[in-house]
């Protein structure tokens, strides 16, 4: 009854939530089990990496030749990359929960792709694939983003392309992404990365599985390609955190194209890369693209136009820095100035050619040359200066003030994208004030038509990139027979295996004479501008001629040596003794080697029980420092540290330095170390620079 005496009613519902609570409890238990599993696996996987990266660090500190140093740098980078991959797997749950944060830093756009290509190059070489890349000229050299995450995306996508490609090539391109409605924000830019392969491709139905967790196109037990099925899932999430998107298209049996975009910061007057001696080149305004509205229907890049027969690019330019006029042609030309004949056919630009001849003439007159008596001179192997022959002494006469009037370069490479990348990389390293012609051919047969016969074309450089050593040697034989081969520099793009095979096959041929005269040079794959700079820009006048990855690796080695010297100065041969608490024999070997190197005596305990016995049965500070692993049998590092701190407290001893060493990278580990009483914390695999700095705090 209500207050007025009328009838009233109510509706109620009761739900049994016991099942719901039980499900929540099971879910919580499962998540805790997952966390423990990830923590343990992180430790188990990271621990062996100490043996790899640690010993490589010692190897880098020995006397190595250039090739050996390159190998050790690759091993070290690969180990670091593996650690990054492990971290990415652990971070997958963070991404799903929206807890992933990007670590923004300045990085060099070209060097990042080169670094990735170096890492996966062994996979490509083993399968006989061409691996190339191209960064368009309008892409800023430095941008700000999460370098580690973008690098991991590239590793995943390029690695997948190699995995699913059995023949042909894998090509990466980086360019500025232009939208129809560009953003007025001039402090950011959207870049587009395209990874193109000639692999097996996939169907529209298979495409639905690509970006699903733990899913693979071929999920059967007999699948040819391994993997967890997480790579592209993580990659897509990471580029979305960068305000971009990722999509993939393919034609079954012909290949696939994956395109992703990402937004990066541009240098400003207040925030820019800290590079000594070059504070301003990064402040050039660049038209930028909006961070929002990225199309999810990205289209694959069209292949470069393939001419029927010969492809030629003629770039004729003077001293100006403006873009050079280019002429596409179906032919080539003899560039000797004693001959007016030309084999240029198709759509050629007479104006551009005449412009080039004007610059040619100006260069010759400036050097005091007689045009009527002059032929195209051949650049020496170091590009500057050129050899000039005089009438008085035809075998001598270096003119320091004269550069070759024109470079004529022939590239033989059957792969379309690799040929395009090689052409662009050479153009980027050529002197700006010398006109040049680059002719690209797809086969050795086409090359023979130009360099063979009674009236061959003269080239300053011939670049050979063929799949087999036999094909290279056969083409070399044709080149050597040419009447105009004298002083032509031959560049052979190869890996170390092919180089050995070519050298062996051509051992008893005129090839050896050319090598003796330094007219044959092997350039290691994967190809990049800095490797062509050895020939065309030895003084590193062009920015692309600098191998920043090699420079960075060298700086890391120098920094490591400096850290050794600093900690040796502080602790070495001064009576200090360190107790290493570590159960893994490989880790013991690496860390004991490090301690010996810096001149410090050390003892080893294999677990927390031995650690307590060795510390408590000796006078306090018998050990000047303790390096203690966290995960050990019988008694772990946390418990050992707590017992030592309790002993010190009861005896009123000052705290001795105890540094935790752990391969567990879960977020709560450092807090646990602080609670247990550790003085500092260093993650595994141990970076000796970080360890040296941590130890130096106490001495």
Automatic annotation (TrEMBL):
InterPro entries: CheY-like_superfamily (IPR011006), HATPase_C_sf (IPR036890), HATPase_dom (IPR003594), His_kinase_dom (IPR005467), HisK_dim/P_dom (IPR003661), HisK_dim/P_sf (IPR036097), PAS-assoc_C (IPR000700), Sig_transdc_His_kin-like_C (IPR004358)
Domain Response regulatory per the UniProt entry, residue ranges: 577-699
Record PTM 4-aspartylphosphate, positions in chain: 629
Molecular function (Gene Ontology), one example: phosphorelay sensor kinase activity
Domain (Histidine kinase) ranges: 40-261
Lyase is among the record's keywords: no
Pfam family, one: Response_reg
Compositional bias segments (type: Polar residues): 327-336, 379-396
UniProt keyword annotations, A-Z: Phosphoprotein, Two-component regulatory system
Domain annotation PAC: ranges: 1-29
Chain intervals for the UniProt region annotation (Disordered): 317-350, 378-400
Protein origin, superkingdom: Eukaryota
Protein name: Histidine kinase
């Amino acid at each position: 009854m209500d207050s007025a005496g009328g009838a009233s009613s109510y509706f109620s519902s009761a739900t049994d939530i016991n099942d719901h609570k039980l499900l929540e409890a099971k879910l919580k238990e499962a998540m805790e089990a997952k966390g423990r599993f990830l923590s343990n696996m992180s430790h188990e996987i990271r621990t062996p990496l100490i043996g790899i990266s640690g010993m490589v660090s010692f190897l880098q500190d020995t006397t190595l030749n250039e090739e050996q140093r390159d190998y050790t740098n690759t091993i070290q980078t690969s180990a670091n990359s593996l650690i990054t991959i492990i971290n990415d797997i652990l971070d997958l749950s963070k991404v799903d929960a929206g807890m992933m944060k990007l670590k923004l830093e300045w990085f060099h756009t070209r060097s990042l792709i080169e670094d990735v290509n170096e890492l996966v190059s062994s996979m490509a070489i083993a399968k006989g694939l061409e691996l190339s890349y191209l960064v368009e000229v309008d892409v800023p050299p430095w941008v700000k983003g999460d370098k580690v995450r973008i690098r991991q995306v590239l590793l995943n996508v390029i690695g997948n392309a190699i995995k699913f490609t059995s023949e042909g090539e894998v090509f990466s391109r980086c360019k500025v992404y232009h939208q129809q409605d560009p953003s007025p924000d001039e402090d950011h830019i959207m870049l587009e990365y395209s990874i193109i392969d000639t692999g097996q491709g996939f169907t529209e139905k298979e495409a639905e599985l690509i970006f699903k967790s733990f899913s693979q196109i071929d999920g059967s037990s007999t699948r040819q390609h391994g993997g967890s099925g997480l790579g592209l899932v993580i990659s897509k999430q990471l580029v979305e955190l960068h305000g971009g998107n990722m999509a993939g298209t393919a034609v079954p049996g012909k290949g696939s194209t994956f395109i992703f975009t990402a937004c990066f910061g541009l240098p400003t007057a207040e925030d820019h890369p800290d590079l000594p001696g070059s504070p301003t080149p990064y402040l050039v305004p660049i038209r930028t693209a909006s961070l929002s509205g990225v199309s999810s229907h990205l289209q694959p890049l069209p292949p470069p136009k393939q001419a029927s027969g010969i492809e030629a690019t003629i770039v004729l330019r003077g001293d100006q820095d403006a873009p050079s006029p280019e002429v596409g042609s179906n032919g080539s030309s003899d560039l000797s100035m004693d001959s007016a004949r030309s084999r240029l056919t198709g759509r050629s630009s007479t104006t551009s050619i005449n412009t080039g001849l004007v610059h040619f003439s100006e260069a010759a007159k400036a050097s005091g040359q007689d045009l009527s008596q002059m032929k195209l001179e051949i650049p020496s192997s170091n590009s500057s200066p050129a050899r000039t022959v005089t009438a008085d002494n035809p075998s001598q006469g270096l003119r320091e003030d004269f550069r070759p009037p024109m470079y004529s370069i022939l590239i033989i490479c059957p792969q379309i994208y690799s040929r395009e990348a090689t052409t662009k990389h050479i153009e980027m390293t050529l002197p700006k004030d010398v006109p040049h012609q680059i002719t690209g051919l797809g086969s050795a047969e086409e090359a023979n038509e130009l360099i063979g016969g009674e009236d061959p074309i003269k080239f300053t450089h011939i670049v050979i990139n063929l799949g087999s050593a036999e094909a290279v040697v056969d083409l070399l034989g044709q080149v050597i027979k040419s009447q105009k081969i004298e002083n032509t520099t031959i560049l052979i793009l190869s890996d170390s295996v092919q180089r050995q095979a070519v050298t062996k096959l051509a051992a008893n041929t005129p090839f050896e004479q050319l090598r003796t005269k330094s007219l044959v040079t092997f350039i290691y794959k994967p190809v990049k501008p800095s490797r062509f700079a050895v020939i065309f820009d030895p003084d590193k006048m062009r920015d692309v001629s600098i191998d920043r990855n090699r420079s960075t690796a060298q700086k890391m080695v120098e920094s490591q040596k400096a850290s050794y010297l600093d900690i040796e100065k502080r602790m070495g041969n001064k009576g200090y003794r360190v107790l290493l608490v570590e159960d893994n024999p490989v880790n013991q070997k690496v860390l004991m080697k490090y301690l010996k190197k810096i001149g410090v005596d050390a003892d080893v305990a294999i677990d927390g029980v031995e650690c307590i016995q060795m510390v408590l049965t000796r006078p306090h500070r018998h050990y000047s420092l303790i390096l203690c692993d966290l995960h050990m049998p019988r008694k772990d590092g946390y418990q050992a540290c707590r017992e030592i701190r309790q002993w010190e407290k009861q005896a009123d001893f000052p705290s001795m330095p105890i540094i935790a060493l752990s391969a567990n990278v879960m977020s709560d580990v450092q807090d646990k170390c602080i609670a247990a009483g550790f003085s500092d914390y260093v993650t595994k695999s141990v970076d000796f620079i970080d360890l040296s700095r941590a130890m130096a705090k106490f001495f």
